[in-house]
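Help: read this over?
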Amino acid sequence: MPAVIDSRGTHVREAEVPAAFAESPGDKANAMFRAVFRELANPRAGTASTKRRDEVSGGGKKPWRQKGTGRARQGSTRSPQWRHGGVVFGPTPRSYEVSLNKKERKTAMRAALGERFRADAVTVLETEGLSIEKTRDVATMLFGSSSGAKRGARTLLVYGRDEHLPVGERLLRLGRNLPRVAITHTGALDVKDVLGYPRLVLTTAALTQLADDFAPSEEAVR
C-alpha cells in the first residue's frame, strides 16, 4: 500500500490502493505502447520539407554534350548526385497524428497506474494544512533534504485538477526549480509520464480523482 506523507515528508499512515488499480489488468502492454506512441507522435509539427529535382530552380541547360568528353553523361545540374540538386525520397510536410479511441486510452492509463502501484512506486501527499513556503521545503517533503533532491529518484508530482488554487499553484511555484521533479495535474497526466518517472507522488485529491476517472464501468464488470 502506498505511504502517505505530510508537508514535512513524515510518514503518517498508509493509503488503500483504489480498486481500479488494485487488480491486475492482464497483458495491456500493447495498449500502453499505442498510447505512448500517440502521445509522442501527435505533438510533432511535421513541417520538414525538401525539394525534388523538378522543384529545384535552374538546371535547364545540359552541363556538357552527350558524347566525346570522356565524362559520364549528364542531363541537368539539378540531378540528385549534383551539389544543389534535388533530394531523393526526402521528407515532405505531413501529419503525424495518431488516433486512439477513448476506451483504449482509458485502459492504457489504468494499466500504467496499476503497474506503478504494484511496483510500490507511488506515494500519497496529504495536502490538508499544507505548510510549504520555500523550494527547500518541497525538497525536504519529497526527498528528506535539499541535498537529497539532487540525487534522488526522478519524481512526478500530480495534484488534482480542481485544487489548482492554492495547492497546485504553490507546488508549481516552489517546485519548478528542482531539476529532478516534474509537476502536473490530473487533467494533463498522460501514460508516458506515468511510465517515464521512477516515482509518482499523488496528492490525496489527485488519488481520489484518478480512482473515480478510471474506475471500471458496470459493463466491463459484467
Remarks:
- The helical segments are 19-22, 29-41, 102-118, 135-143, 164-175, 191-196, 204-213, 218-221.
- The first strand starts at residue 3 and ends at 5.
- The chain has two domains: 3-29+100-221, 45-95.
- The mean pLDDT is 91.
